[in-house]
């Protein structure tokens, strides 16, 4: 995958580096020479330019990119201007970062449908994690729908799934169970690794230390931990 990321602040730089590590071809763009210099050895290529200038923006290989991502956050004006110009240039897959409700509204008004708000999503996830003490991780699906990783409640330990109806009793879907299991390598040395069990029959028994991967509404998740 070939991706162009405009804006190499903390988020943009981290994203560019990680996507490069995952094997994607990444072009990082920023008008700050220091930011470009900092990551030039960690991504496929970097360009120092002012993407607000339409004349300069046209020199980027936009037609060859699978996605163009505007990661600019703090500079509202630059974010909107660059995004609007990329729409004008007919970028096939345009993704834009939003920092506020107003920012999102403006991006939607200029025709951007793929908008993400990492800071807001992280804040929501962390707030829910703080509220639900047994939750280890929260994955944002929508405003009211989450996927969480949670320690198995004590009342469910050593019980088969046949006696626990998550859908009917708690309005939640059990997607998988993570379990720490002892394994041996080729030379017989033992170690512990976490395995994911996704084919869960009614005979599957929950054990102490298991981690449930649950999907459902915020209210349903709160209800589960309120009653257990």
TrEMBL record:
Q: Where is the RCK N-terminal domain?
A: 3-118
The superkingdom listed in its UniProt entry is Bacteria
Q: Which Gene3D superfamilies match?
A: NAD(P)-binding Rossmann-like Domain (3.40.50.720), Regulator of K+ conductance, C-terminal domain (3.30.70.1450)
What InterPro entries does the database record attribute to this sequence? NAD(P)-bd_dom_sf (IPR036291), RCK_C_sf (IPR036721), RCK_N (IPR003148), Trk_Ktr_HKT_K-transport (IPR050721)
Per the UniProt entry, what is one GO biological process?
potassium ion transport
Pfam families membership: TrkA_N
Please name the PANTHER family in this protein's record.
KTR SYSTEM POTASSIUM UPTAKE PROTEIN C, POTASSIUM CHANNEL PROTEIN 2-RELATED-RELATED
> What is the designated name of this protein?
Trk system potassium uptake protein TrkA
Q: Which organism is it from?
A: Williamwhitmania taraxaci
């Amino acid at each position: 995958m070939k991706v162009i990321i405009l804006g190499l602040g903390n988020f943009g730089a981290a994203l560019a580096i990680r996507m490069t590590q995952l094997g994607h071809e990444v072009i990082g763009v920023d008008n700050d020479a220091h930011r470009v210099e900092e990551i030039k050895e960690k991504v496929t290529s970097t360009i120092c330019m002012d993407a607000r200038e339409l004349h300069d923006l046209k020199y980027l290989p936009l037609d060859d990119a699978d996605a163009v991502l505007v990661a600019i956050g703090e500079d509202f004006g630059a974010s909107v201007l660059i995004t609007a110009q990329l729409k004008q240039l007919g970028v096939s897959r345009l993704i834009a970062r939003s920092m506020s409700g107003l920012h999102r509204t403006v991006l939607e008004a200029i025709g951007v449908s793929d908008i993400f708000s990492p800071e807001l999503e992280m804040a929501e996830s962390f707030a829910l994690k703080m509220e639900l003490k047994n939750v280890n991780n929260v994955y944002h699906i929508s405003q009211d729908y989450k996927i969480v990783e949670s320690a198995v409640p004590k009342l469910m330990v050593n019980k088969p799934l046949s006696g626990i109806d998550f859908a009917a009793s708690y309005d939640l879907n059990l997607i998988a169970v993570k379990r720490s299991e002892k394994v041996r390598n080729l030379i017989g040395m033992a170690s512990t690794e976490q395995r994911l069990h996704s084919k869960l029959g009614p005979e599957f028994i929950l054990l102490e230390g298991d981690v449930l991967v649950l999907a459902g509404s915020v209210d349903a998740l709160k209800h589960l931990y309120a009653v257990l």
